[in-house]
Structure prediction request, 299 residues.
Amino acid sequence: MAMDSNSAVVIFLIGLFVWDKYNKGSEKAELVSQDILDLVPDWKGWKTKGDNVLTTLWNGDLCKKEPALLEDSRLKCWWHTGHSSFLLLGPLKKEVVSVFPRIVIFHDFITEDEVDTIKMLAIPKLHAAGVGEGDEARVDKGVRDAKHAWLLAQDNPAIWAIQQRTQEATGLNMVTSEALQVGRYGVGGHYKPHFDHDHLGTDVNPQGNRIATILMYMEKVDNGGFTVFPELNLAIRPQPRSAVFWYNLRRSRAGDPRTLHAACPVEGVGKEKWVINYWVRERGEDTARNVSVMNYVPL
Prediction:
């Protein structure tokens, strides 16, 4: 019996879904029919579903265009040492991609050995990433389709080294940071435009709001997977072992709406994107020195 085109598409997507669920260390998951129903009618339809920001993203090709340097004389690259004596011995390659708000890329920020170690530690702990904070978090693949795992500095020297390097590079005290988060996006994996900080005033975390984000790309992504900032018309291509850093808050500690960002879908059968996230909060307690710590947005 001949197979019509719609049936072929359905079978292909089911096969693709099953492959992605089971490949490369992902935990086993039941094939839920609703997942397939969500995918088949509008594959990659998340990009336009009732959201003007998403429509702008795709109509403007922000997720598709080749990222290029903007013609702005204030954008530059240099060797970065900050105020760190440690970085005087091994400065970082720093590239400014946005001035207001300030968004920078540290190239060759992590090593290949660190990438291998982090993946090895994270794979057994990977689970579906939720949307929201704490007990309010829920899995919603229409908003965020990824898996993640949390790792602590004491779990492995490689994690401690990355955390310390992050502190030296950013000048932020990592005592106030959340644990290292590893994220894996399979084919079609994405995260709709969102803020990393609490922009609704509902977060009651005693450490305050998320003052800054550090996003590290572990490996090359062949197609898709850009990090895009719709309000800035900025697209950042994942570059292996690089780290993107920005402040989510203004100096007044109010949220900066220009930091709205999204993770574009990963494209290509068998492709994936691995990332590391740190979210640094405003304050914390340094128990080793028995002092309170505050982080600030610089001038």
